Each structure stands twice: as structure tokens, then as C-alpha cells.
Amino acid sequence: MKTGLALILTLMIFAGTVAAQPPSTVEKTEISGVSEDKLSAALRADIQKLVGQAYDAQAATQIAERIQTELPEYVATSTTASGSQAGRVRLVFSVAHNVNAKYIVEAVEVKNIDRTKISDALWADMQKMVGHPVDDAEADRLRERLAAEFKKNGPHVGRSVIKGDQPQHVKIIYEGHSENSFGFGFSNPGYHSKQKFSGLMNANYNRLDITGVNLEVMNKAEPLLERFAGFKASYWVGNKRIRAQAEYSSLRTQWSAGTLLAAAANPAGFDLYRHRNTIAPSVKVTVTDNIHITLGVDWAQLQMQSPALHFESVRTAKGSVDYSFNPGSSGNYGISGGYDLHTAGNTSGSNAAYTRHVWSQSFAFWKQNNPEPNSFTGPHRISVDFKLGKSTGSPPMFERFALGSIDTLRGWNKYEISPLGGNRMAYLGVTYMHKYGRVFYENGSVWNGGQPKVLRKSIGANVYLGTLLHAPKPFRLILNIVSPGIGVPITGSHVHPVITFGGGN
Amino acid sequence: MLALALCPAVATAQSVNVRLDAEQLRITAPQLGFLSGEALQRLRNGIAVSFSFNIRISKDRYGKPITEATYRFIVSYDIFEEKFAVNRLSPNPRSVTHLSGEAAEMWCLDSIALSIGNLSPDQSFWIILEYHSEEPRSSENSADSGASIIGQLIDVFSRKNQRQESRGSVVGGPFRLSELRKAR
């Protein structure tokens, strides 16, 4: 009992001490963003009366509301900044179009810009913003001056406002974007225990997002029936709305033993080629940020290997539309997909006449407030993907459908279940992703029109080693991309799982 | 395709619902989603973005406007509170804060109205709402990219990009005032 009373007494004394701490005194009032002359004389006088008074947040808010009533096109807020002495504050009424003008600039920094190349005068002017509310107009004038200093062979400059280290304080960041950018990387690395390694190296040059060159060197076993190795080079020019591209590829083809045997045994005869050179001009139109249309043609020359060495050409007109909708930060789902049409006819001088349609659709759901909704390693994410394909006529081998790789129907081997592919395809996959890995269920079938369908199913899992091992960036991303996995075909007997690395992203 | 590229507003036209409020037409366009893409990215970077909306009535979809009005807004995003603020600059200045993205879009559209003027009750009409966001002109726009073909191409392609970030439209019709009055 005595201990309880002592505790209450201690708390009362502590509370009394806190309550006794004197409130800050308003040393000065400031109006930021507009001239004081825009306010009525009465309001200006009431603002002036606050000087020398104890700071009262409620009174400050009421003044801000009166300012906004007089200047309804602006957002008016009150904030405090340190005064010249301890216990004193400057009361700042920020009147601006940008709601962030109520925050005090803590620091002005540059990113991807060499500080030593900024003139001292400009740097000094930039630092003058520190300690004052964010002034959009001034910040942008300084951005323009910075851009002007780097006009020749320097970065284009962007501006952003980020949270500062202190409460209610922000940092203004000026970030350089080089006119010329070079990129180099590996894409889609993967391993399938029955199809072996796949991978692609790419290098690109981009000038101001207006024009660029891409070069890819690859050796891939998916998504086609053939393993192909070679290079693709492309040049593009365009803007955000329309982009024209010319691509040339030269690919050496390698067929699996299963495909060679099946082609030889097939009474219809499948002409296999050993080399494929393609010129592919195309135009891509961005209808909205979420909808793109691509039109183009492919001129492919095939070096046939049977019955005797000769050349054939395939001239294909292509069109596709792809779309994606994401309701934004407040939503927790996304929809994406596309439709792809290829058509070739004898009238265009093509040795192959066919039409090929593919429709793909994906639905993804993720946990509300996922900080990275589009990340494939998000906290909780479920995606449902399906794809339908149909071709008529006599499509060449590179246009026939295949399932059973590191991306689709994992657990099956396309060279065993359908070594010549098919002209019909249906696929459905459901994947649950967590930051440590993913599990999936897939089913699908590849068949030829008029022939029976065999629906194949598989289950499997991948582990995101980078996250699991808490590897530092960027190794975490690399380890997550080449995630080890297993695909198990669902069959009545003779289950032979497939081991994979990567894929399925 | 070239037309699509040069007239994106037509390409992005979506449906619109119209209602009669006293002697003014008001619209709802839930799929407009103008706070998206690069404009949204700029807002999340703490930069205010200006939007201009033009609403007009015409006798047919592509006809000359009978009447039209322009509304200007500035939208910003509070980086601490993660809420949007909207300032209507003209007409009738007003401001509102602490809105979600959807609420900010809705507030802008709710603000937009167009007088029916001399429209007769049974005259059919179309309503077109176009918007575009604008970023401040900067000195780099006038930068000389060089006399090379690439430099000139860059100038040609980049000039429009740097002035306008996003744009879109909604088109609806044909409507009749008599039908809208019955629907009230």
C-alpha cells in the first residue's frame, strides 16, 4: 500500500514538473509563399499580436484557417521553426499551392551530380532554403539554374522532396539524370534439370529516353521448342507515346533428340532449320500508361537442314495489345494481359501460311499496404495466370506452342510430352508468393486441332535464398532471381521431379 | 496509328455519366484516373502538379462546341500524412486537404460543372471532358542538343514531353436534357 502511494506521489511530482515547463514564446511571425499585402489589415494585425505570446497551436491553426478563407486558392498551414534562443520559436504561416510548404527544409542535397562541379554561388543559394518552409517556386528556379550549369554533356536535373531526419522537416533532393546511359546485365537466367541452362546477356545505350541501341547475346531453351543461340541487335527512336524499332537477330538452332526423332517419324514431315535470321521493324504506341499497341512485320530467313540444305522465308505481320491496371496505392490487386496476333500468307512471298493467336491474362492479389506491390518477393501475393493459344495453317516450328519449361508447367519436359509442339495450347497457373519463396500449381495442355488433349498438372516450390539468408543488396536480388526450385508432375506413377533454378518470374 | 499517337486524348476516351444539377451539367467518370503514372510519381516526390480540365458540349461527338469551360487545379501530396491536397485556382478558388487519391479525383470532378445555356430539352448533345497535366517550363527545354540528326530528333521528340506529362479524356453521349430531367 505504501509502495503504491509512493509511486502515485512520484508520478504526480513528475507530471507537475512537466506541466511547469514554460511553453515556447513566439519570437517572430512570418508569412511564407505570398506577400503579406494579400491579407486583410485586421488579419495582419492579429498575426502580429501573437509575437511575444506563448505559442498556442490552436490559435495558430485558427489564424491559418482565416488566411485560407481570405486566399481560398491556397493551402494555408502553420508551423514552427527554432528561434534565436532556447524557448523561442518562429511561427511560420505557409501559404502555398503545395501542401508540403508547411514543412521546414532540413537539408538540400544532390544525387548523381558532382557537388564540386556546382558553382559556389548556386550552392550557397541552394543552402539558403535550409531552415525555411519549402518554397516550390524557388526550389524550381534553383533546379533550372542547376540544369543550366550542366547543360553540356551533363545530367538533366529532377527535384524531389523527401522526409527529413527530424519530425516535420524535409530534404530537397536534386537528382541528375544523365543524357547518356549505358546498361549491362543478365536476364532470365535459368536451369531446368532436363533442358539445362538458359540465359541472356544484354547491353544497352540510351540517350535521353529518346533513342537507344540494345544488344543481346543469348543461349536459351525456352520458350520455344528449339534451343537457340545467337544475338539480337535493335535500334529504337521514340517518345513516351510512340516508339519505332528495327531489330535484327541471327540465331543458331539446336534440336533435342526427341524432336529430331519425332520429326523424322511424323508422316506430315516437319522441316527443321539450323539457322534463323530475322529482320523485325515494329512500332509501339502507348495509348495510355497502361495500354500499348505494337504493330510490325518479321522477315525471317530459315536455313533448312532437311531434306537438303536450302533456304526458306517466313514473312509475318504482327500485332499485339498489352494492358495492365493497378488501382494504385490504395488497392491490393492488379490485372494485366495481352493479345498477340501473327499472320503469314503466300501472297506476301512467305513459304509458310498461318495465323497464330495468343491471349494471356494475369490477376494478382496482394496484402493491403504491401510496400512493394509489384515486387515478386512481396509479403503475401497470389497470382492467377492463364494463357490460350491457337494457330491455323502451317506455322514454322518457332511459332508452335510448347509447355514444360522453367516458366510453364514446371515438372514436365516439353521435349518428352510434346516434342513437336502443337497448334493449340491452354495453360493455367496459380502461385502464392511470400518473401521467402513461392509455391505453385499449374496445369495445361498442348495439342493439335482435331486430336485428343492430355491435361497435365504439376506442383512445385521455389525458395528465395537471398531473402532467406538475409544477403546484402544486390546479392539478395541476384540470389532471389536464381531461386532454386522443384517441380513435381502429378501423375499416377513414375514421378520424376524437375529441379530448376530461376524462371517463373 | 499516327493519329492515335498525335491525338492521345481521342485514343483514351472513356465513358462518362452526366447528371443535371439545377441548370448545370455535372459528370462522373470513375475510370478517369488522372492521378496516375508520371503525374502520381511527381506528386509522391513532393512536387505539386497542375491539371487543366476543359469541359464542352457539342451537337455531335467531334462537332464544334456549343459551350465550354476550363477549370484549373493544383494537386499536391503530403509526404508525411500521405494525403492529397487540391487547390482549385479557377473558377471560384477553393482548397481542400487530407484526401485519398480517389477522393481528390472525385473532388476535382465534382467541382466541374457546365451551364446548359440555350440547350433545348430535346436537343441531343455530347459532352467531352479533356484534361492534361502541366509541369513548369524550364530553361533546359530550350537547350541546344546539337546540330546532329540525333540532336534534332531529340529536340523534336522531347519538346512536347517536357511540357505535358499526361492527358486523357472522357466522352459521353448522346444525351437529352428532357431525359436527364426525368432521371433526377
Question: What is the strand and helix layout of this fold?
Answer:
The complex is a heterodimer of chains A (505) and B (184).
Chain A: H1 2-20, E1 25-32, H2 41-49, H3 57-70, E2 75-82, E3 88-96, E4 104-111, H4 120-127, H5 136-149, E5 155-163, E6 169-178, E7 180-192, E8 196-207, E9 211-220, E10 227-238, E11 242-254, H6 257-265, E12 273-288, E13 291-304, E14 310-325, E15 333-344, E16 354-366, E17 380-393, H7 414-417, E18 424-434, E19 437-447, E20 456-463, H8 465-468, H9 475-481, E21 484-489, E22 498-502
Parallel strand pairs in A: 1-3, 4-6
Antiparallel strand pairs in A: 2-3, 5-6, 7-8, 7-22, 8-9, 9-10, 10-11, 11-12, 12-13, 13-14, 14-15, 15-16, 16-17, 17-18, 18-19, 19-20, 20-21, 21-22
Chain B: H1 2-6, H2 8-11, E1 17-21, E2 24-28, H3 37-44, E3 49-58, E4 65-78, E5 83-90, E6 94-99, H4 101-111, E7 113-115, E8 124-134, H5 149-163, E9 164-176, H6 177-183
Antiparallel strand pairs in B: 1-2, 2-7, 3-4, 3-8, 4-5, 5-6, 8-9
